[in-house]
Amino acid sequence: xxxxGTARLSELALERxxxxxxxxxxxxxxxxxxRFMDEHSGLAAAQAIGRSFFDCFPDAPRAWLKRKFDTxxxxxxxxxxxxxxxxxxxxxxxxCPITGSLDLMQQDCAFMPLIENGEVVAVxxxxxxVTELAVAWKERExxxxxxxxxxxxxxxxGLYNRRHIDGRLESEYNSWTRHHETFAVLLFxxxxxxxxxxxxxxxxxxxxxxxxxxxxSPQLRSSDILARYGGEEFIVVLPHCDEAGAAVVAEKIRAxxxxxxxxxxxxxxxxxxxxxxxxxxxxxxxxxALVAQADQALYDxxxxxxxxxxxxxxxxx
Length: 317
Fold this sequence. Notes:
Blueprint lengths: L5 H11 L3 E5 L5 E4 L1 H7 L3 H4 L4 H4 L5 H14 L3 E3 L25 E10 L2 E11 L1 H21 L10 H18 L4 E7 L2 H8 L1 H15 L8 E6 L2 E6 L4 H16 L3 E3 L2 E3 L3 E7 L7 H17 L5 E3 L6
Parallel strand pairs: 11-12
Antiparallel strand pairs: 1-2, 1-5, 3-4, 4-5, 6-8, 6-11, 7-8, 9-10
Helix pairs in contact: 8-9
């Protein structure tokens, strides 16, 4: 049995390897083109070799690729491009038996100098199909995002929970200390909620809490954060909001809940809420102090007759 020579073995490997391999000279003319490139680009080696790469692929990222090629020629060293930074170099269809949002092959690309007599005569580019890896990575990220989200969501209402809102409060507070952009906090809870549970049962009480979440959310801006703070108490963080704006939002929340009714087994069930609020002001020392001010305002609303809004005002010295 005759064993093919080294050159023939190299040629066979180049043609059979599961990578796209091509090379360009200093004028960006294609000087090497393997079967993978032929099959996925639709351009045969006889059509590609000797032509400018950019004439063959006018939609390729010309400026970026030229920088890559020129750097390899200049520095005599290779470079790499991950699919995470540039999903693909050339828009090849993938043939992975998967479903998902990736219509094109995701590609890792390596750029290597081909050196002869100490001179870089060409840049060789390898294209690795990493579509399956990319899909798995994206699915993992989606799963992790869902896990993170579920850990910061209230199971009953679907709103953010206290763990999440504490972090957002800290973030808004830190931003305020740096940039002095006023933000507001509202606390509200359901008036006589124990009476609702005692009269109608806890399943109805749960339905009331879910209904509150559904009523309040449309009253807020997309930048506002609504959360269940505990029990029948809710909290709203209002970025870039002054006292006048906080009063308007608080009243919208109060009125929307008062004017709505939940269909219970015994008929329409209406509830009201008391709302306390405060805004970030000079002299504020912590998030805890801010929440305490909102809580004090809520206390004042409760003891002022309920179903009302109160905003915190520091007592003059």
